[in-house]
Automatic annotation (TrEMBL):
Residues 128-149 are annotated as: Disordered. Residues 135-147 have a biased composition (Basic and acidic residues). This is NAD-dependent epimerase/dehydratase. Pfam families: Epimerase. InterPro entries: Epimerase_deHydtase (IPR001509), Lipid_A_modif_metabolic_enz (IPR050177), NAD(P)-bd_dom_sf (IPR036291). It comes from Streptomyces xiamenensis. Residues 10-247 form the NAD-dependent epimerase/dehydratase domain.
Length: 338
């Protein structure tokens, strides 16, 4: 652990990813020592010369220990790059989604810190519960994961909780809903539904839904999601040992979201808004796509002081501007370091 008066050493696992790159940029402006760890080249802010960039495949034997050596805080955002669909068919997904957490616990167990155990904040997902209830989730729901990806995320979370009980670390699991949007803090693209619809609208194509548009989602702007991790790492005493749901509590209908996208693109381009229409869903469409997923963020807000600050239209406007810019960044864009 750090000596008294030293800035804490924060290690970000998955720093080159969509959310990880924004989180790394956020941390670069805070009074911490920062280590960005990823398998690919990592985008970091130009003003953050003190960042230590560590390039490694964390599934390789012996790679994790130096990546987290002496870290006071580990923010674990690493996951299989293919997401939930590839987890069903790629045997490597378990090694990444669960194995890295297993190795992290082993590495930290071997440490003998003089002070409190290190804090580990893990990026989990609200879909770990399985099919969502018909009311906002608050974290008290039983877990019945439906997909291999959700089962793997839950297994990693359980390893974290057990290690917390054993005093190996102070683990905090943040279950995230849909994180979306582009930020000037990172050039890493968002491949999610909102940015996909922005790209369609910019191309003049209609925005299509597999339902009547009344399905609700809790959509968290990527910068707000990054801020949830910094809030969690500052409040380990009240948060450790549990999972917490991150959300806006806004519960936008997808019809409203898509119309917001169409209007925002029209405002930026001067063209009429593209139509928003319903189409026949494919036969293999997951049932969860037709169910509302909403979050009650009050427990996490009360315990950490975090709340989502970016409204839907503002987040969409930022995303449209980034995609029109072409690079997804402004003059403050990150450079890429290896």
């Amino acid at each position: 652990m750090t000596a008294a008066g030293d800035a804490p050493l924060v290690t970000v696992l998955g720093a080159s990813g969509y959310l990880g790159s924004v989180l790394t940029a956020r941390l670069a402006a805070q009074p911490v020592r920062l280590r960005a760890v990823a398998r690919r080249p990592t985008p970091v802010p130009r003003h953050a010369a003190a960042i230590e960039v560590h390039t490694a495949d964390l599934t390789a034997p012996g790679a994790l220990a130096p990546a987290v050596a002496d870290a006071d805080i580990v923010l674990h955002l690493g996951k299989h790059s293919g997401g939930w669909r590839d987890a069903e068919r790629d045997p490597d997904s378990e090694r990444i989604n669960v194995g890295v957490m297993r190795d992290l616990v082993t590495v930290l167990r071997a440490r003998r810190p003089a002070g409190p155990p290190p804090v580990v904040v893990f990026a989990a997902t609200t879909s770990q519960i399985g099919l969502p209830p018909d009311h906002p989730m608050d974290g008290s729901e039983p877990d019945r994961p439906e997909t291999a990806y959700d089962q793997q995320k839950l297994a990693a979370e359980q390893l974290l909780k057990t290690a917390t009980t054993e005093g190996v670390l102070r683990g905090i699991s943040l279950r995230l809903p849909t994180v979306f949007g582009r930020s000037p803090l990172s050039p890493v693209p968002d491949q999610g539904v909102v940015s996909t619809m922005v790209r369609r609208a910019l191309a003049g194509q209609p925005l299509t839904m597999w339902h009547d548009g009344t399905v609700k989602r809790d959509l968290v702007y990527v910068e707000d999601a990054a801020d949830a991790f910094t809030a969690a790492m500052r409040h380990p005493t009240g948060l450790a040992g549990r999972h917490w749901l991150v959300g806006t509590g806004r519960h936008d209908t997808l019809g409203e979201v898509f119309r917001t996208v169409a209007d925002a693109v029209a405002a930026r381009t001067g063209r009429p808004p593209v139509p928003v229409t319903s189409v026949q869903p494919p036969q293999d469409a997951p049932v969860i796509d037709f169910l509302s997923t909403t979050v009650n963020p009050a427990p996490f807000r009360t315990a950490s002081g975090w709340s989502a600050r970016t409204g839907l239209r503002d987040a969409v406007d930022r995303t449209v501007a980034a995609l029109l810019d072409g690079s997804g960044a402004t003059g403050k864009e990150p450079s890429v370091r290896t």
